[in-house]
Design goal:
Chain lengths: 233, 136
């Protein structure tokens, strides 16, 4: 039986590169390609892939929330996240969301196959920096990378995070409602709850919150290697 | 004779993606790859490709600067930019640096082969995401 892999990234040229990498490996096949998180969830439920590869910075639903939702639906999904940055906070969130593999996009041609192999044999795969962070957390319990270390911010529900992303991407309440199959009124209620919980006063504040918390990533050229700082606003 | 192509992008996975679009076309041949502007200029001198497919934002030396150097040091190459900068201003700068083509990455699957063929015949090919492509 072939190992079936679902690939989700919003850049077609990157998806093509990823698929070419994966398909060279004997015994693996790409069973589906998605261009955002919502599509990835639909396809994963339908295709039941053995491994799901998710870009973190996708529109409509980012890779971290996609990971959370997929694992809530079925905790057996094996997920590798692809990221343009290995900033501590992104690593923490990815681990916390339940990803078992963490690969930098710039290193994907070297690491992706290893990551999928690791997951295939029920191990995990992380970049050296993630390993360092986890080890440091383990050795220094005061700053542990623990599952129970919430950010200082009030926690949004999964639905509220989805709404936050869509609003921060510039969609109107009506557009959000149609995307999520909700009434406009419900979306507006979510929106005012989000603003209240986070003590925000404008959509502009919401966008800043979404960027700072990795809910959206600014659309810009793929950063060059070793300049991950440039992606953080 | 096949058109000889050099692929330049700092992300190997993107270069791999570009290859998949060009592979299997007998009239197009990828002769080499480079991962930044400096390496691009070196490889151009060494391999003398007909077309250089060039990313803009790269470490060490940007594609724009590499393009200027390539025109200076090895005239006769045609440069096609592939970039995520969906901006008319950047496109003007790129063409002013001596490039013959400019395609945004989101359109590559549709446009790359046609763009490479156009510039290899010394025709201009530009395509921004918002604007329809133009060829002259």
């Amino acid at each position: 039986m072939k190992l079936r892999i679902l690939v989700a990234d919003d850049h077609e040229i990157v998806r093509r590169g990823l698929c070419a990498l994966l398909q060279k490996h004997e015994g693996w096949e790409v069973c589906g390609e998605a261009s955002d998180g919502r599509q990835a969830i639909e396809m994963a439920k339908q295709l039941k892939p053995d491994v799901v590869i998710l870009d973190i910075g996708m529109p409509n639903l980012n890779g971290l929330d996609t990971t959370r939702q997929l694992l809530q639906y079925d905790p057996h999904f094996k997920i590798v996240v692809l990221t343009i940055t290995d900033a501590d906070q992104v690593i923490r969130e990815a681990l916390d969301a339940g990803a078992r593999g963490f690969v930098l996009k710039s290193d994907a041609s070297r690491d992706l196959v290893s990551a999928v192999e690791a997951l295939q044999s029920k191990r995990m795969f992380f970049t050296p920096r993630v390993n360092d962070l986890v080890l440091r957390g383990f050795l220094d319990k005061g700053h542990a990378v623990s599952r129970n270390e919430p950010p200082d911010l009030p926690v949004l529900t999964a639905r509220e995070r989805e709404v936050t992303q869509l609003l921060a991407e510039g969609k109107s309440s009506k557009e959000v409602a149609s995307l999520l199959n909700l009434s406009t009124k419900t979306v507006e209620t979510h929106r005012s709850n989000i603003m209240r919980k986070l003590s925000l006063h404008s959509i502009r504040d919401l966008v800043v919150y979404a960027i700072k918390n990795n809910i959206i990533q600014i659309q810009m050229p793929l950063p060059t290697n070793h300049t991950t700082e440039s992606t953080v606003v | 004779m096949a058109v000889r192509i050099l692929l330049v992008d700092d992300h190997p996975v993107v270069r791999q993606g570009l290859r998949t679009l060009l592979d299997g076309r007998s009239q197009l041949e990828v002769v080499g790859e480079a991962s930044d502007g400096i390496e691009a200029v070196e490889k151009v001198m060494e391999l003398r490709p007909d077309v250089v497919v060039l990313d803009i934002t790269m470490p060490r030396m940007s594609g724009i600067e590499a393009c200027r150097l390539i025109q200076q040091k090895a005239p006769g190459r045609e440069v096609l930019f592939v970039t995520q900068h969906d901006s008319p201003q950047m496109m003007r700068e790129a063409l002013a640096a001596g490039a013959r083509g400019y395609v945004v990455k989101s359109n590559l699957a549709r446009d790359l082969v046609e763009a490479v063929e156009a510039v290899s015949q010394h025709r201009e090919f530009t395509a921004l995401a918002r604007n329809p492509r133009t060829e002259s």
